[in-house]
């Protein structure tokens, strides 16, 4: 499985997600600079966490307008598997690939901690290695993770099974405890929690799980056997 | 020509920062303050001298970058 | 000549620049003429306490700085130690106290930015940030605002640049009411064959400016950091710089990209006193002159004068000397990252710093006079007499030990700092293997199984009671904390925060702390490799507690053999390592429960520290022990409570008959002690060694029970421990 990680100025989880992809999928990972206009021939695109353009103006707003994003939007619209984590999720909503917006956390503080999630949809290319309803632990680290969409959109997301993950104990005020959502076709996932930060026992100080790993294993299942 | 763009959250969108300001004003003793909403102001210097063209251009900037119309409204003010 | 250059130099102007009449006389002699205003400004910052260490350098020389693993000791941007396999750890701690008091968010943020630059300028990728914070009394009207601003500023900067903030310490004491302390530390990792230094070389080589443009921000930050606060200091707000962590992130990536080539001869960040101090330091270390064309300096504001450009403390800027002909190669990298790049001058053989502006000479000063002729003062000092030992029998007992424990772990100084560290991204880079809340933070050396253990510590109430003992203890405590996770302590950085050095009692605190630190560093093989001095932390004549904050770094050979403080298995046997004498002088029990602060601090037996620590570390390395916690403020009872809370498991402790009173056994702060826990089957490997190891109880249940004295449920411990800070900040 070949992956691309888009690097915006201010991305800071680009290396982390590249390491996770390399370690778990074994395939090559291309780091693609935001000023590029062409993507390499890959099976999967990741938009990493960080503070693209300092998150000045709005989180993800300026990154969403960078040259490479035209190509990302076109691939994703054609069904290309695309994951946005944290700032990547914010970029995806700013491009319109995913509905809604990520607003300032309800308590106004940046929050970094392990959070409990429920896997709401275990059928997607991103989540098939989990069980539906499974409770998992993955860390969050963000200032703007408060998911907002109007109630019709929220109803539609829920009705179509497009809520991938929900918080067990909402850390940021997100509507209906939403932590991650899929697009209509199910090939684009945006999520605030960072699966790449919990893929091996050392990352929890040998005292917790490695629940982030399954997300990358899901991709491997879906994209390599497909 | 100078353009001033006011970006505000749409009504119905929760504004935690506005809420915090309202709370802080209350605790400072300013009573009778309600519905505090925080927004931002973006100032631009334009080479364009034609008002209508300037307005159209700034409107496009707002739609494309300066405001996120999922959650935000914007208003344009031109000077000079 | 421009108006600014022609400004006459009056005695008032000299005084406003913080220079004494004697110091001004030295300038006249060095130049052989009257300085112009730009030159006066440059001398004033180079000779300020902050840049010249004029009050402290005679004492700093006493600190041990060498060990076989030290690659670079004090004197460079940061210290460098060898961590094996061709890698080096590069680190330093620095204060940003005065700016943080005036504007807490930006002051703290730019403090983080500055220390990051000190580390990556040497070729290291920053891998961890720490901070040591000290605020005034929680009751003081400004404290809450300052805590909120400083924490948000540290998070705002560190989170954005993507370097994890993995730990630190936060204390409250009324002596900091008018002078908070914000000490930030960065640790980076570099290849030992790609370390960059600041000594300029090669006559004619280009001097290059990169990063952000220069504005009028922060002019005179260095002189501000060298003066006492008075009532009107808050008027100085406009001189505080504003940080741009996004630009810093770009600067890190651009510099590291350029450093992978062979284009750089020397590099230095522009910190306090900006362009001036960086060019003077680079030229001085290389024994060369610099000629700078100020018209070429990228400027953010219009009509800037030479004075303003030389003294600006605009952030996120670096100065480099490049190999000739490599300018275009370097320029392409910085332009890729959307950063300014300008050749602003060249190296000369004159030995002078020569500034030109609009075709005229705006300043011309011998570099040696700016550095070597800086005053050095042997200020009179008086180390305070040692306080008498306080017999624990003379310290009032508490009639409710459980309540005393809850008060300690639920009070300002020992309550959980979760509210703070959850606002810091402590996991970015995905190598944090021991998160905040333990004895030391541990970050994995990327791509290996090695770990760097980091701890910052200081106990100012001990330093006040006895500076020498307090100095020893501050060093020993970082050593112990690093040992408690299983790592070998290698070296320290220090941040010496004190009051006005012109007062003999304050200078005595400084000299005393240095003496104690020097002794501890020598005996523990734990040299000082970098540091910073912050004096004049004093408002209207009232100084802070002496606070020599120590940042220690150690190496864990295998992160799979690491200890944490949490109890892990029901039935594990708990041992107390080290001797207990019930020392309650200058203790937290005395301060928080009884309401006093008398007596000598606990004596630090450095040989016992070493013996006990080496033993504990060997138990962890051999896989016998994976649960360990050092004993410090609040003693045995507090350490047990913390281990229970971290592991969500209770413990049952039996106290043997002892001549010591119960409150001294529970809360005494004797040094060189650890608690460890291990399965029963390994007990004999712990006791059969000659090191004092007392079996005191077992892990299990949902309560902490200590003899018949104390019985508290885990949930009561947790709610006391977790609630104080969020409630205070709400």
Short account of what is shown:
By secondary structure, chain B is α+β, with helices and mostly antiparallel strands. Chain B has helices at 16-27, 51-66; strands spanning 2-9, 39-45, 72-79.
Helix and strand topology:
The complex is a heterotrimer of chains A (226), B (80) and C (730).
Chain A: E1 3-7, H1 14-25, E2 29-33, E3 44-47, H2 61-64, H3 67-77, E4 82-85, H4 87-95, E5 101-103, E6 111-119, E7 135-142, E8 146-148, H5 151-159, E9 163-167, E10 178-182, E11 188-191, H6 213-225
Parallel strand pairs in A: 1-2, 1-3, 3-4, 4-11
Antiparallel strand pairs in A: 5-8, 6-7, 6-9, 9-10, 10-11
Chain B: E1 2-9, H1 16-27, E2 39-45, H2 51-66, E3 72-79
Antiparallel strand pairs in B: 1-2, 1-3
Chain C: H1 11-16, H2 21-31, H3 37-46, H4 49-52, H5 57-60, E1 70-72, E2 79-82, E3 87-95, H6 97-102, H7 104-120, E4 125-135, H8 143-161, E5 165-172, E6 181-191, E7 206-211, H9 221-224, H10 245-259, E8 264-269, H11 274-286, E9 289-293, H12 306-311, E10 317-322, H13 327-336, E11 340-348, E12 352-357, E13 360-366, H14 367-371, H15 401-409, H16 418-421, E14 432-434, E15 441-444, E16 451-457, H17 460-465, H18 467-484, E17 488-497, H19 504-523, E18 528-534, E19 538-539, E20 542-543, E21 547-556, E22 573-577, H20 588-594, H21 606-621, E23 627-630, H22 635-647, E24 651-653, H23 662-667, E25 674-678, H24 683-687, E26 693-699, E27 703-706, E28 710-713, H25 714-729
Parallel strand pairs in C: 4-5, 9-12, 17-18, 24-27
Antiparallel strand pairs in C: 1-2, 2-3, 3-6, 4-6, 7-10, 7-11, 8-10, 9-11, 12-13, 14-15, 15-16, 16-21, 17-21, 19-20, 22-25, 22-26, 23-25, 24-26, 27-28
Helix pairs in contact in C: 7-8, 7-10, 8-10, 10-13, 18-19, 18-21
């Amino acid at each position: 499985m070949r992956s691309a990680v888009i690097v915006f100025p201010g991305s800071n989880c680009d290396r982390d997600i590249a390491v996770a992809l390399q370690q778990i999928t074994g395939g090559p990972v291309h780091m693609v600079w935001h000023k590029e206009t062409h993507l390499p021939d890959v099976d999967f695109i990741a938009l990493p966490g960080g503070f693209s353009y300092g998150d000045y103006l709005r989180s993800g707003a300026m990154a969403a307008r960078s040259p490479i994003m035209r190509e990302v939007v076109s691939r994703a619209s054609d069904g290309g598997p695309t994951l946005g984590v944290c700032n990547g999720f914010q970029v995806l909503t700013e491009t319109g690939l995913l509905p809604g917006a990520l607003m300032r956390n309800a308590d106004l503080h940046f929050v970094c901690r392990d959070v409990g999630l429920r896997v709401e949809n275990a059928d997607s290319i991103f989540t098939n290695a989990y069980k539906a309803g499974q409770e998992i632990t993955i860390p969050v680290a963000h200032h703007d993770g408060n998911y907002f969409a109007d109630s019709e959109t929220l109803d539609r997301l829920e009705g179509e099974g497009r809520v991938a993950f929900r918080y067990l104990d909402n850390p940021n005020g997100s509507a209906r405890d939403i932590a991650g959502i899929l697009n209509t076709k199910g090939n684009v996932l945006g999520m605030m929690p960072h699966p790449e930060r919990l893929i091996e026992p050392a990352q929890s100080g040998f005292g917790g799980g490695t629940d982030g790993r399954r997300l990358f294993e899901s991709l491997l299942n879906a994209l390599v056997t497909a | 020509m100078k353009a001033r763009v006011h970006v505000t959250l749409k009504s119905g969108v929760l504004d935690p920062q506005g809420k915090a300001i309202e709370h802080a004003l209350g605790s400072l003793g300013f009573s009778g303050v309600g519905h505090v909403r925080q927004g931002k102001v973006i100032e631009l210097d334009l080479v364009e001298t034609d008002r209508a063209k300037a307005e159209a251009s700034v409107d496009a900037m707002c739609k494309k970058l300066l405001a996120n119309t999922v959650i935000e409204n914007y208003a344009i003010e031109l000077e000079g | 000549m421009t108006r600014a250059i022609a400004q006459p130099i009056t005695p008032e102007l000299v005084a406003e620049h913080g220079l004494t009449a004697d110091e001004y006389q030295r300038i006249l002699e060095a130049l052989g003429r009257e300085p112009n205003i730009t030159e006066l400004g440059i001398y004033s910052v180079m000779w300020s306490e902050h840049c010249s260490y004029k009050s402290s350098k005679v004492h700093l020389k006493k600190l041990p700085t060498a060990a076989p693993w030290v690659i670079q000791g004090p004197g460079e941007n940061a210290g460098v130690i060898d961590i094996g396999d061709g890698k080096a750890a590069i680190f330093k701690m620095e204060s940003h106290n005065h700016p943080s008091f005036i504007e807490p968010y930006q002051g703290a943020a730019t403090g983080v930015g500055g220390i990051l630059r000190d580390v990556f300028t040497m070729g290291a990728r920053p891998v961890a940030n720490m901070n040591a914070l000290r605020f005034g009394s929680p009751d003081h009207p400004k404290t809450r605002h300052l805590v909120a601003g400083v924490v948000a500023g540290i998070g705002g900067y560190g989170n954005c640049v993507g370097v994890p903030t993995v730990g630190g310490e936060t204390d409250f004491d009324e002596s900091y009411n008018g002078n908070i302390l914000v000490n930030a530390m960065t640790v980076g990792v570099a290849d030992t064959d790609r370390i960059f230094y600041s000594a300029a070389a090669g006559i004619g080589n280009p001097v290059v400016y990169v990063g952000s443009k220069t504005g009028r921000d922060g002019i005179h930050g260095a002189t501000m950091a060298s003066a006492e606060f008075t009532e009107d200091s808050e008027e100085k707000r406009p001189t505080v710089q504003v940080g741009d962590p996004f630009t810093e992130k770009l600067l890190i990536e651009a510099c590291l990209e350029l450093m992978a080539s062979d284009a750089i001869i020397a590099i230095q960040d522009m910190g306090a006193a900006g362009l001036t101090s960086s060019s003077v330091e680079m030229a001085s270390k290389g024994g060369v002159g610099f000629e700078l064309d100020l018209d070429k300096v990228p400027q953010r504001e219009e009509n800037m004068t030479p004075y303003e450009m030389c003294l600006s403390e605009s952030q996120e800027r670096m100065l480099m000397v490049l190999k000739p002909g490599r300018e275009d190669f370097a320029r392409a990298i910085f332009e890729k990252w959307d950063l300014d790049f300008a050749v602003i001058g060249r190296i000369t053989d004159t030995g002078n710093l020569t500034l030109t502006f609009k075709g005229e000479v705006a300043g011309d000063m011998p570099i040696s006079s700016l550095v070597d002729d800086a005053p050095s003062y042997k200020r009179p000092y008086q180390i305070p007499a040692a306080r008498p030992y306080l017999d624990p029998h003379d310290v009032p007992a508490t009639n409710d030990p459980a309540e005393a424990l809850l008060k300690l772990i639920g009070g300002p100084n020992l309550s959980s700092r979760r509210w703070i560290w959850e606002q810091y991204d402590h996991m970015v880079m995905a190598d944090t293997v021991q998160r905040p809340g333990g004895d030391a933070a541990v970050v994995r050396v990327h791509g290996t199984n090695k770990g760097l253990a980091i701890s910052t510590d200081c106990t100012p109430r001990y330093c006040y009671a006895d500076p020498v003992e307090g100095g020893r203890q501050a060093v020993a405590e970082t050593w112990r904390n690093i040992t408690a996770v299983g790592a070998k302590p290698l070296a320290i950085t220090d941040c010496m925060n004190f009051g006005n050095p012109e007062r003999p009692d304050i200078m005595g605190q400084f000299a005393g702390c240095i003496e104690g630190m020097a002794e501890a560093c020598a005996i523990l093989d734990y040299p000082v490799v970098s540091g910073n001095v912050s004096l004049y932390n004093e408002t209207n004549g009232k100084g802070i507690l002496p606070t020599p904050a120590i940042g220690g770094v150690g190496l864990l050979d295998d992160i799979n053999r690491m200890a944490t403080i949490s109890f892990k298995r029901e039935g594990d046997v708990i041992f107390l390592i080290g001797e207990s004498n019930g020392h309650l002088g200058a203790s937290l029990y005395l301060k928080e429960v009884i309401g006093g602060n008398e007596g000598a601090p606990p004596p630090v037996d450095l040989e016992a520290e070493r013996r006990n620590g080496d033993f504990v570390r060997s138990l962890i390395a051999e896989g016998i022990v994976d649960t360990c916690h050092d004993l410090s403020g609040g003693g045995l009872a507090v350490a047990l409570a913390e281990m229970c809370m971290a592991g969500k498991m209770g413990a049952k402790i039996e106290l043997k008959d002892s001549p010591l009173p119960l409150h001294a056994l529970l809360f005494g702060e004797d040094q060189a002690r650890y608690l460890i826990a291990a399965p029963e089957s390994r007990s004999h490997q712990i006791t059969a060694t000659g090191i004092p190891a007392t079996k005191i109880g077992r892990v299990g249940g949902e309560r902490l029970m200590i003899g018949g004295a104390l019985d508290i449920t885990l949930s009561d411990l947790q709610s006391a421990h977790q609630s104080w800070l969020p409630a205070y900040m709400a």
